[in-house]
């Protein structure tokens, strides 16, 4: 795989391949987090500083993870970034007849260090290859005080989902100013759940429900992209990513619907970038993520009481619905060496009010995201980029959220997020 993007000779190629390999190893050790449900809100430090906008506004090599057609517009470059991510997750239960009432913090593990890397190399004036490795998304909660202790749960409660995507990319400028790109999307994912013993009694395979360690699975999908220069001032783009059918989490075959199946949802999006004056570019993205198309994520808990236990065909999931995501970003060239960025993103909340009980484990409910960023050119060939993101606390208040067999009452879930990140960009 690495020979796909390395140079045929010279000292730089081995260093690039070594960096890619090292980043992949670190990614496996890091639980990924996200803001658009459990997807990352942007690919690459520059996009993240501009609200996550990237479909029609490629700025660094990680842009190919948002739109593979971007590879023809980036030149020969390597970008290596790292993000320090601090989510603030929690839950409150009230009116429960089984003794669950209380406030609970899911912040037993913080912060998270999340690397990413992208490399793009033109083969000609019209053809470019690339490789991006980054976190597709994930979710982590760690409740030292187990919210379900009154049910008989033991130990720490929480989940740790990691999804890493590896995207080899080919892009071709089919006519001047208009490019198409394709990326086979290789997904590697790990999952662990702890402290959910009472729910195992409602599973078709109770021995494979909780506290089974980390299980791994993999799958391959495809991402297609288009990027076009419609006028000297306007670019447009779009992408489509297929649903990624992955192998089952066998250790959690009693938790996830269809015997441990946990696929990556289908997604698609459109973007535009306008440059009204040479120093300023304004970008906007729209993205659709079809969480409801994955049974383990989208099925409601209600089916449990319709004769379908956890782990069965069509069994319960987390009740997530499909979401629409909007992003706005601005990039301003302040001088030959300094570029400034700002942005805003708005995502639908995927968790309905009636589905908050299980989402104590996965409260991916933040909606608004505010970002700032900047790039400073160290030389003609090297630059550093930094950014910061804040997603204010969002609370989903349960309504009919705890079924009567579990004691009734309501479960509220909340999440806020803060992150800072840096990257080094090299023009090769």
Quick overview of this protein structure:
The chain is mainly beta and 428 residues long. The protein is built from four helices and 15 strands. The chain has helices spanning 12-29, 45-49, 257-260, 295-298, and strands spanning 77-94, 102-105, 112-122, 127-140, 158-175, 178-194, 215-231, 234-241, 267-277, 280-289, 323-333, 338-347, 368-377, 382-396, 410-427.
What does this structure look like?
The protein has four helices and 15 strands. The chain has a 14-stranded antiparallel β-barrel with strand order 1-3-4-5-6-7-8-9-10-11-12-13-14-15. Helix content is about 5%, strand content about 45%. It has one domain (about 1-425): Porin, CATH 2.40.160.60. With about 425 residues, the protein is mainly β. The chain has helices at about 10-30, 45-50, 255-260, 295-300, and strands at about 75-95, 100-105, 110-120, 125-140, 160-175, 180-195, 215-230, 235-240, 265-275, 280-290, 325-335, 340-345, 370-375, 380-395, 410-425.
Topology:
Blueprint: H1 12-29, H2 45-49, E1 77-94, E2 102-105, E3 112-122, E4 127-140, E5 158-175, E6 178-194, E7 215-231, E8 234-241, H3 257-260, E9 267-277, E10 280-289, H4 295-298, E11 323-333, E12 338-347, E13 368-377, E14 382-396, E15 410-427
Antiparallel strand pairs: 1-2, 1-3, 1-15, 3-4, 4-5, 5-6, 6-7, 7-8, 8-9, 9-10, 10-11, 11-12, 12-13, 13-14, 14-15
| Average pLDDT level | 91
Count up the helices. 4
- Helix and strand run: HHEEEEEEEEHEEHEEEEE
Main β-sheet, spatial strand arrangement = 1-3-4-5-6-7-8-9-10-11-12-13-14-15
Q: Using only CA atoms, what is the Rg?
A: 22 Å
How does the overall form come out from the CA principal axes? elongated
CATH superfamily: Outer membrane protein transport protein (OMPP1/FadL/TodX)
- Poorly predicted regions: 1-14
| Beta-strand fraction estimate | 35-45%
Q: Quickly name the level 1 CATH class.
A: Mainly Beta
CATH topology (fold) name: Porin
- Structural class estimated from helices and strands: mainly beta
Provide the number of structural domains.
1
